[in-house]
Design a protein that fits this description.
The protein has a four-stranded parallel β-sheet, with helices on both faces. The chain has a four-stranded parallel β-sheet with strand order 6-5-7-8. By secondary structure, it is α/β, with parallel strands linked by helices. The longest helix is centred in the C-terminal third of the chain and has 20 residues. It has 16 helices and 14 strands. It binds 1,3-dihydroxyacetonephosphate and iron/sulfur cluster.
Length: about 325
């Protein structure tokens, strides 16, 4: 028996979680959640992870339904990797500024203007851009994958100029960068990090490579969400200035209850003085329940598009395995 919409809006988080768990079992569904999701969504997810780990989970998933609690490009990736499953996204408006920054036709023209380059795209892009790419990467494997490409091979890197610039600086490459940014990470300022550092001189600065170059210059550690979590856990330090989306603090605090965290906020045109990704936060428990009940909104793409987009993602997963980045 399903819960009607009126009653749904009166339920507290515990009741909603119970209703979702029952529905998930009934429909043989799995919930994949990104570290940037709301705490209550992370709590109810069967797997939480970064983009790389979640695409691996999606690929080997045997459930009938995958509910992807993340953003649109992540749910698309899950569908591409496991097309016989029904993939749901609780809110179809959960997009990404990086994916939006790279329109297909403009990018196609850019690629055609540089026929001697291969295209490596960050996973934060649409299925259409993936279909135009030779290799996909995530923040968790980008450096090693780029290292593995012969030095003489020219590369276009899209759509994140900050991640691309960072990879250029650590690998000595000169990849041609598409001009896209993450609206959350790019708006974090090095000046604010320095203010926090003055107040907490013994804190380590950890930053996601989607942050701008000035901020990355003052970071002690740069890495993907998963790499940051590993660093906090294994290093001997007790205080951290965190330059990434705030959702990750749940996992940081859960695994390191005795450590202290100070967040860098993004000050930008969004009139937001926080480090929340408004897209990531669109998914709520109520929407999660409704999407499982209605089996909608569903991610749907043409076979052709999925087949084209799958090649560079599978190549990434194969290379990541052979380079020992994933199992
Ligand atoms: P990762 O989880 O791969 O570090 O990506 C961060 C991000 O911005 C996802 O949108
Ligand atoms: Fe996109 Fe940035 Fe939000 Fe990640 S945090 S989904 S890159 S806008």
């Amino acid at each position: 028996m399903y819960i009607c919409i009126e009653l749904l809006s009166t339920m507290d988080k515990r009741e909603l979680k119970e209703a979702i768990t029952a529905l998930k079992k009934e429909k043989n569904a799995v919930i994949l959640g990104h570290y940037y999701q709301r705490e209550e969504i992370q709590d109810i997810s069967d797997y939480i992870g970064d983009s790389l780990a979640l695409s691996r989970e999606a690929q080997r998933c045997e459930n009938d339904i995958i509910v992807f609690c993340g953003v649109h490009f992540m749910a698309e990736t899950a569908k591409i990797l496991n097309p016989s499953r029904k993939v749901l996204l609780p809110d179809m408006e959960a997009g990404c500024s990086l994916a939006d920054s790279c329109p297909t036709e403009k990018f196609r023209a850019f690629k055609e203007a540089h026929p001697d380059h291969i295209v490596v795209s960050y996973i934060n892009c649409t299925a259409e851009i993936k279909a135009l790419s030779d290799l996909i990467c995530t923040s968790g494997n980008a450096e090693k994958l780029i290292h593995a490409i012969p030095e003489e091979q020219k590369i276009i890197f899209a759509p994140d100029k900050n991640l691309g610039g960072y990879i250029n600086s650590v690998t000595g490459r000169n990849m041609l960068l598409w001009d896209g940014v993450c609206m959350v990470h790019d708006a974090m300022r090095a000046e604010q990090v320095m203010q926090l550092k003055a107040a907490h001189p013994d804190a380590r600065v950890i930053a996601h490579p989607e942050c701008n170059a000035a901020l990355l210059q003052v970071a002690d550690f740069i890495g993907s969400t998963k790499a940051m979590l590993n660093y906090i856990h294994s290093c001997g330090y007790g205080k951290f200035i965190v330059a990434t989306e705030t959702g990750i603090l749940c996992e940081m605090k859960k695994n390191n209850p005795d450590k202290e965290f100070f967040t860098v906020s993004a000050t930008d045109s969004r009139n937001c003085n926080c480090a929340d990704c408004s897209y990531m936060k669109l998914n709520t428990l109520e929407k999660l329940y409704r999407c499982l009940k209605d089996e909608s909104p569903e991610i749907v793409m043409s076979e052709d598009l999925m087949n084209q987009a799958r090649k560079p993602i599978e190549k990434m997963l194969q290379m990541s395995k052979s380079l020992g980045i994933i199992k």
